[in-house]
Known about the structure:
The protein is built from 4 helices and 9 strands. The chain is an alpha+beta fold. The protein has 2 domains: about 1-45; about 55-220, no CATH class. The strands form 2 sheets. A 5-stranded antiparallel β-sheet has the order 5-4-6-7-8, with no helix packed on it. Strands 3-2-1-9 form a 4-stranded antiparallel β-sheet, with no helix packed on it. Strand 4 and strand 5 (about 115-120) form a beta hairpin. The protein starts with a helix and ends with a strand.
Amino acid sequence: CFLTGAAKLVVVIAIFLLTFYVISQVFEIKMDANLGHIFVLFYFPLKATKPPRYKCGISKACPEKHFAFKMSSGAANVVGPKICVEDNVLMSGVKNNVGRGINMALVNGKTGELLDTKFFDMWGGDVAPLIEFLKSIQDGTIVLMATYDDGATKLNEEARKLIAELGSSSITNLGFRDNWVFCGGKGIKTKSPFEQHIKNNKDTNKYEGWPEVVEMEGCIPQKQD
């Protein structure tokens, strides 16, 4: 049975090769090259092309003179927020530099270089250090903020006004356990287009007592002289 099967296989291969040879002669195809190509494809199939990866994992490349960024708020009181600029993770739970309240990263608007990171506890802490820090930010600085757990309870009118001056539209409505991410700048003349806000609502919350995570990505224009 084995010999019979082997003989049949040899016949099939012979017929295949003969057929291919006839076709190659009719269409003047170089047989050796094409046979080689067939066997190469058989043993080494083409690999699927991987989609390109852009900085910080954003969905498309940023134009020249723009900084790529991606950020997310915290998830309930379990997973901290994450802020990435130009493929550099500036703040995250893995880096162990995030905390309850408002998390903030400052970036040089000309170079994209990290200047500072801070978090301010807006539940059990004091708003005064946040206000002092906001007042110290220099013109031309990119400011990225993300909430974790609760970022609003201790906010007062002065703190909200200072954040609004950075380009925020939602800070006046930020409430207890809302999720919020924002990217603005010191000296900005208009409202920032980079802001996401989800209200804490027991009827729509994804987690018990907290809304779902908010994520945001985009391209920040480089500050020009």
